[in-house]
Amino acid sequence: MMGFSVRHLDTQKPDFEPNFEALLDWDNRENADIVKRARQIVDAIRNDGDDALVHFTREFDKRDVRAGTDLNITHASMASGWDRLEKSDRENLRAAAQRIRDYHQRQLPEDSDYTDEYGNKLGSRSSPISRVGVYVPSGQAAYPSTVLMTLIPANIAGVPETVVSVPMPNGKISDHILGALHLVEPTHAFGVGGAQAIAAMAFGTDTVPKVDKIVGPGGDWVAAAKKHVFGPVGIESIAGPSEILVISDGSVDPRWTAWDLMSQAEHDASAQAILVSPSSQYLSDVASQIEANLDSSPRANIITQSLKKRGAFIRTRSLEEAIEIANRVAPEHLQLAVENARDHLASIKHAGAIFLGQFSAEALGDYVAGPSHVLPTFGTARYASVLSVQDFMKRTSVIDITESGADALGRVASQLAEVEGLHAHAEAARIRIRDYDGNR
Q1: Of 63, 283, 365, 424, which residue is least crowded by CB atoms under 10 Å?
Q2: Cα separation of 250 and 273, whole Å?
């Protein structure tokens, strides 16, 4: 039987706080060497365009490419990938796509406006971003689900041009990814991964169009590159390795919880799986189930690395304290594996997605529930949100001032501008006031 190790914390122990802080330490979540190298890659792409893009693709993805045009993923190849899929695979992709589409169709914002007491019409309107870049991971595993979870909201938002970048290690790409691309029909797609893909979309090359915003999850290299390019291009989030935190009162079968934790740990050795419970026996039972399950898991090595590196089993005094711990973590995925889970929903302050009750497996959210699985990580759920239609749109203020409105508001604005020492501002407002300087 294959064994594993995971840190065990107890809120009643005097060493809990320092050990818990170490578990969440932001600095430990970033590799300084990767950050430095990613910056060099981004700068090289910015300066040398396709030449650097081809160089790094050859180096990191081991692809025999000679020119930027060799990186194109054609629509014909997408259609061929779709045709090669089993009928059941095509049906599953269609079913997931329809559920994702149904969910996000309800998120379209409405324009708003109102008329104030002076007859001024004030409001806002929403419009799609002109060109969006989507990163789809495809290194240790292929993620056709990410194609659907990102491009369907973009299509619903009305984005006229989408650019997809997906790694092709050794020149290979999954037919499932090609098939998913065929379903959602991006404008452009390229077989490029890592920091070089983010840089190419951010600054543009002769081959890859420059985008206005980049969305999609990725590993350490992608996260580091996103930080470096933010500003010249919008970034939806710095999504890092996957995370799950399960709160359990012991009412859910420990076999189910074991697989829930393993489902996220298997993503990446840097993924994080945390179980929080007031029951020592339940923590022990889940650990036993994980150990038993590892023998049948094809990704057992990744799971054991993840649990050892970033995993934790935390015993708390109560369910309420478990929720407090979860709010401090602000996890990407939070499973409330407790009885009457919805009764505790209001107590959850920070989480990318919340799964209520024993049947709401996080894995269902990854593929087919409806909401996007692109979620904030690294504790950024304290202020960031799940990817949605709004991420592909921008809101613009609309201000239509009447003559009487300019007279009333100009008096206030001019005085405030003078307080700030901005004379031209004051004069621009004052010049529209009735009977000022020969007006009207």
Answers
A1: 424
A2: 17
E-strand ranges in 55-212 read: 112-115, 121-128, 131-135, 161-165, 188-190
Q: Which residues contact residue 325 at a Cβ distance below 8 angstroms, ignoring those fewer than 6 apart? A: 11, 20, 276, 314, 316
Q: Which CATH number fits domain 32-237: 3.40.190.10, 3.40.50.300, 3.40.50.1980, 3.40.630.30?
A: 3.40.50.1980
From CA 167, how far away is CA 60, in angstroms rounded? 10
What digits encode the pLDDT tens for the residues 164-217?
999 999 999 999 999 999 999 999 999 999 999 999 999 999 999 999 999 999
DSSP, collapsed to helix, strand or coil, labels residue 248 as: strand
Is there a catalytic annotation at residue 17? no
Strand-by-strand arrangement of the 243-248 sheet? 7-10, 312-315, 272-277, 243-248, 333-337, 353-356
Instruction: Assign a CATH topology to domain 7-29+241-383.
Output: Rossmann fold (3.40.50)
What pLDDT was estimated at residue 440? 57
325: helix, coil or strand? Answer: helix
Six-digit token string for 210: 């420059």
Q: Are 7-29+241-383 and 32-237 the same fold in CATH?
A: yes
* Catalytic-labelled residue, pool 236, 332, 344, 362: 332
What's the pTM value of the predicted model, to 2 decimals? 0.92
> Which DSSP string do the residues of 131-168 spell out, in sequence order?
EEEEE---SSS--HHHHHHHHHHHHHHT-SEEEEE---
The rounded distance, in Å, linking the Cα atoms of 95 and 243 is 26
Q: Which residues of 390-408 are buried (b: 16+ CB within 10 A; e: fewer)?
A: bbbbbeeeeeebeeebbbb
110 included as an active-site residue = no
Q: Where are the domains of the chain?
A: 7-29+241-383, 32-237
Identified catalytic residue from 228, 333, 344, 373: 333
